[in-house]
Amino acid sequence: MLLVGRYTSPFSRRVAVSLRYLGFEYEHKAINAWSNLAEMRSYNPVGRVPALVLDNGEVLFDSNAILDYLDFMVGPEKALTPLEEPARHGVMRIIVCAMGALEKMVHSVYEVTMHPEEKVHDPWIDHNLSQTELGLDWLDQTGQTPWMAGERLTQADITTTIVAQFALARFPERFAPGTYANLDNLSARVMELPAWQETVPAPDEAKLKVSIPTEEN
Description:
By secondary structure, the chain is mainly alpha-helical.
């Protein structure tokens, strides 16, 4: 398989961590969709990352759809999002909250990176980040028993950590360490996983601008 999309993208990173954690072998193509839009459209007509090229040449896109495919491939015992209820919706509600908080942060990044400084609308940034804060507050209060959705690590833990670390990296003055003690504890545990450490962005990749909303899902 081939994963297309930079690890600096939280959308691509959640797929990469999941691939490694579940034991899938894959190659990685670190495309910046904004500056390589034509190439990215050869994988996804919308030009968004991530995309996953299967061994038979078929291409999957949208991180949620890719992760759903991986879970069905590994089966119910290993799936990061349970395939049966009620465990399934217990994990899904956490993922949806985390992804909603992430989308609001990405809107704020877009406002700063895609507009001249004199046209940046600070109230819009604050509005979006306030919604992110509400999402992170809820996630922080969800608790861990010992993981966010029970006794084993699930996609809820991976995605929540991705979002918490993105908040810290992009808006450290607003989401400083210690703001969300439970999320800090969760992140420390998830970041010890080989799957996390093996998907840290390369130094040259990390220096590039964060992907804008039009290229990620």
